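Thread: Newbie trying to understand structure tokens

Hi all, I'm a second-year student working on a class project, and my supervisor (Dr. K.) asked me to get a predicted structure for one chain before our next meeting. I've only ever worked with sequences, so writing a 3D structure as a token string is new to me. If someone could post the tokens and maybe explain what I'm looking at, I'd be very grateful. Here's the chain:
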Amino acid sequence: MSQNQPKLALPCETSPCPRLLSTIQSPDTEELLRFRGRQYDGTGVTVAIVDSGVQTEDPRLNAATIDGWTLELSATDHARVIPGFSDVHGHGTEIASALHQEAAGARLLAIRVADQGMKTSPEVIAAAVESAYREGARVVNVSLGASDTGRARVLLESCARARLHVVVVVAAAHALGDPAFPADLPTSLGILSHPECRQEIFFLSP
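---
Reply by user tm_fold:
Sure, no problem. This is what the structure looks like when written as tokens:
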């Protein structure tokens, strides 16, 4: 089965991006997330990271609670669960570190779907979204995406099922506006990089 090169948002020169922090930090948000007068640190919430895996030995994640597994397609196009979720690229660990910094109390669920070249498929991403909410994730972060419009339906269906379970799928939109799924689907929340960040930093694939 052919695979699509995902469209990724890379970290800025420094991580987290100072331009992004300048837009979201205030006296109320420097330490904890604040919403409707209440502060949150993610306690009691499971956040899934559908990515290249997570390196739990990273010192930024010393205090984090992390579980997970690897998903890949079998010869019959069925998703196969493989124990372990070590990062094979580095991108997933960066995402996990950023999430842990903002929500230190959240449980992180690492689901590795990409290989060393950050290649994956819509079918594997869809299976990861489903396995995430079945494992109790309330937020599913997908900082990659497939560009094949003809194969987006499987992602539409999996994100719709997640939504029925009151789960939010947050996905990276393409930095140049090209198709990126699941970010472009009505059943997910697409996020675009900050407009002041340089294109060569936030755009990986041609």
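A couple of things are worth pointing out once you decode it. The radius of gyration is 16 Å. Residues 1-31, 201-206 have pLDDT under 50 and may be disordered. Feel free to ask follow-ups in this thread.
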